[in-house]
Amino acid sequence: MNRTTLAKVLLVVAIAIPVIIEGITFFGLFGQHFGSANDAATPTPDALGVGEDLLSGVEGSEAAATIESGSIQASDDGWLFTVSINVANHGNSPTRVTFGPVTTGEGTVLEQTVTSDRLSKNGTDSVVAQWTLPSGETPRSIEVALRGEDRAAIEQTVRIGGFAVQQD
Questions:
Q1: Which of 64, 89, 91, 115 has the most other CB atoms within 10 Å of its CB?
Q2: For residue 61, which of 98, 101, 90, 96 has the smallest C-alpha distance?
Q3: Which residues of the chain have pLDDT under 50?
Q4: What is the pLDDT of residues 23-69, one digit of tens each?
């Protein structure tokens, strides 16, 4: 190999290596800041999402709490998680359902709760709840409590996921 060819190869390598490193760093930071579309919108296999009943795993439950819609609105102040849940009582006794607190994938617990109206037999209610999440965090689970007048309260933690992150 002659000197001219060697100089050209070394020049290309000297320029290419920093460009590749900077590109990897840039796209890594970009992905961390905005998140990948798959990170937030793809639930884990056991997580419940839109169209699924949060009370499906409750034995003897005569109520349903179906997630009608859910989204995460990203802003500079934090991420706003909004979920709309349709609650229906199929039992004979009046029932209330409480949603919250919410726990994020990073372990942050948001203590706010929202409770449905008192539902008589075959009664329904639409509950809209919002939690402000720390930036970059998505909801991992929600606590659901079913309370009836003639039965003990049933409380469980339900894994949730698959909510799209929308940028401002």
A1: 89
A2: 90
A3: 36-41
A4: 888 877 766 656 544 444 455 668 898 999 998 877 767 889 999 99
Instruction: Single out the residue of 78, 145, 90, 99 nearest to residue 123, CA to CA.
Output: 90
Q: Which residue type is seen at 26?
A: F
Q: Which CATH number fits domain 40-167: 3.30.9.10, 3.40.50.1820, 1.10.10.10, 2.60.40.1470?
A: 2.60.40.1470
pLDDT at 44: 60
Parse the chain into domains and list their residue ranges: 1-34, 40-167
Q: What burial class does residue 1 get, using C-beta atoms within 10 Å of its C-beta: 0-12 exposed, 13-18 middle, 19+ buried?
A: exposed
pLDDT at 38: 43
